[in-house]
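thread: overnight batch results

M.L. [08:02]
morning all. the overnight job finished for the chain we discussed friday. pasting input first so we're all looking at the same thing
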Amino acid sequence: MRAVPDRITERLSDLGNVPVALPVLLLAAAYAARRGNRRGALAAAVAMALVPALVVPLKEWTARPGPLEPWAAGYYPSGHTATAFVAYTGAALLLRPYTGGAEWGWWPVAVALVLTGATATGLVLRGYHWPLDVLASLLMCTPLLLAVGRSCRRTRRSPG
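M.L. [08:03]
and the structure it wrote out:
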């Protein structure tokens, strides 16, 4: 018997599904673009589009087996973790300028990291991924999110 019930870990891992995470990013990008942050919205959309372009070839190249399915391959890196990280953190970076200034601007990023951490935890506890699969996705997607953050900062500093 597992310490955390399967129904909970399954729901947590589902946070990294494209139909769950992508709409969050698209809504945030639409809101930011409407508020004038088109550069940041475009950067977030490009970052999300790059996730499968980075993850799929690496999965095929490594052909790593999963923890519970050693006969199956393609578990490294975790696509669900990459999707969750880019979608939720990208949305947070886009929404951060509109959340009430410096003293409250941290909460969207904190929520995004909690959602990403919940996804990663669910994937590992459910047995879908090894912890290294999750870590690789986080490290691989960090430069994408740094670019999104830079795009959002440039937009905020511009006049008008």
